[in-house]
Amino acid sequence: FLTPEHNPALISIQVHYGADEKEEFSLSAQASFLFMSTALQLTCLDGCNYYLENEQQQAATIEAVAVSDVTLPTTNVAVLKCTVSWKESTAQDANYCSILSFSISPQRPCRSGGLMFCSNISFIYQVDTTIYALVPRPVVQGHFIITDKNMNFQTSVSLNFYRAPRLIQAQFSSNFALVLLSFDQPTTSSPTSCAELVLGSNFGLKSECVWFTPAQLTIVLGYNSSLLPGDELTLIASIKAASDPRSFSRAVQKCPVDSPLQALIPRLTILGPNSISSCDEAEISVQSTSSRMTYIWGCRNDPELHAAISVETRDTSIRISGLNLSKGILYVITVQGRSDFGVYSDVYTQEISLSTLITPILLIELPSPPYFQSREILVQANAKFSQCGETSNPISFTWTLYQAVGSVENTVQAPILEAQGSLLQILAGTLRAGETYLVHLVGFLASQGISQTQQSFVVGHESVVARITGGNKVMYENAFLDASQSYDPNYCTVVPASFPVQRICTPLEPLKFSWSCQYPSGLKCRFVNKSLATFDRVPLIHIVLAVLDLTGYTNISMTVTVVGSHSSDTLSVVLIAGTGPVVECEIVPLYKTADGIAYQANDIQSNGSQLEYVWNIIEKSSGYSLPLLDQATFLTG
After folding, report:
1. Are 97 and 127 spatial neighbours (Cβ–Cβ below 8 Å)?
2. What pLDDT was estimated at residue 390?
3. Cα pseudo-dihedral 110, 111, 116, 120, rounded to 10
């Protein structure tokens, strides 16, 4: 009910609270405000999106529309202001945006049969470059404000300020094999070449750059990488914002590479014979789950041998002569690894003794760690004849696999697997994650007798694998997302020759699921009532489009987090808001042969309509579409 003559208006409010009309306390507040004209409306025609990296003046044009009895602002315009808003109050922000000049065109009849009148306001504005470091969000809003000399009206039109993606952190992965670059908003995931993205030659040979998510770039370090925590990483590419590719970084961005929040302790496997003759030499080697390691060798129970072999070296093996060993002593050789990142492994041991007999030297060759329950392990037996005798007879091998209980020396478990021959095959699913196993090898040579050795190894825990059925989806009215195909590989076995791959899983605890929603701007999704969008903690969720606030957006990103007993994984899928009903379709694998793989499109609720199909094959790492050799083959389902 207020009119311009009430400007500036002052409103006072009193609130009384009490029982039985007896006042117990009261509150009061007052606020003043300026009358906003509803008879004069502004529409931005051009130049109302400002990209903060421009650092240039920008021209804009606003159309002012008024009803017949309102005079459009011309010479009586006192102020044309420009504000930037990212705080609760805009008063402190006005100085970041300034109007350099403006002009107003003559009034002209327009719209609704001449009942409304228009004029264009053209002006040049500029934003202070210091604002780039202050704006906390990828997109903030501002206003062009028009006020007349007598302060009888004030009218505004929105202005959007876009800030280009900002590199906020570079951090090593837990095993120092990757560097994770995080941005403050989703990007267009380009470019993909390391040479175009980052500056430096310390990433190693055959390093790769992969966009696993639009907001995270991963550098897969190559062989002989020399990158260390604290080294500065220089991003040279212009990174474009997914919300508006016209917003892109122009300056080089630099960031130190941080150590991981929790570094993964390297695991070692020590290999070598358990006994040698006085004429022989034992080679004891070590394998590690981490690269760039220094190894500290020694002997735990003999000072003389310790003095002979004690060394810090990058070499992965040492040699011990039988002449340095004495009969009746069981020597405990130790090795500990230290990575270039300052992370130490546990101390690993290998026992060796001087044989009183002339026996072959046996060696168990394990593949490089880590070892997982879901992967097959092939163990090779290697033998070398003793230099103390001559023979050409073949050696027969017998394998026994145990699960270790307590110390390796006190294993009492029944054998898990027994085999003959030079190769021991441990099938996927035989072992359990987190357990220690002992491989025992016996070699028999008719002319030199029996020799035996043993080797222990630990089965590690694999990361949970999150999966969402389908891919990018167009949704109309509603959508279903299904993450029930997620699995914990530590408790799964693969059904042999199954296609698609089928797993039988028996986890100790059920997987836990949680869902989140994000706009392209990076902000969390909200319902139409402006509350944060939340979803049930179940693998299958139903999203109703009508309850989501999609004002200004055409798509959202849904992310599922799957938590297992020892790890978690996340996966995102983009949902696109359709303008009309869509065909529900799923891809069903048919068969797999030596010649190829067959898939079929399974239509849901097509209502008997004639459908046409367009198939694409996408390379996952780069996002590029691969050409199909025979397009005609893919015109059907």
Report:
1. yes
2. 64
3. -50
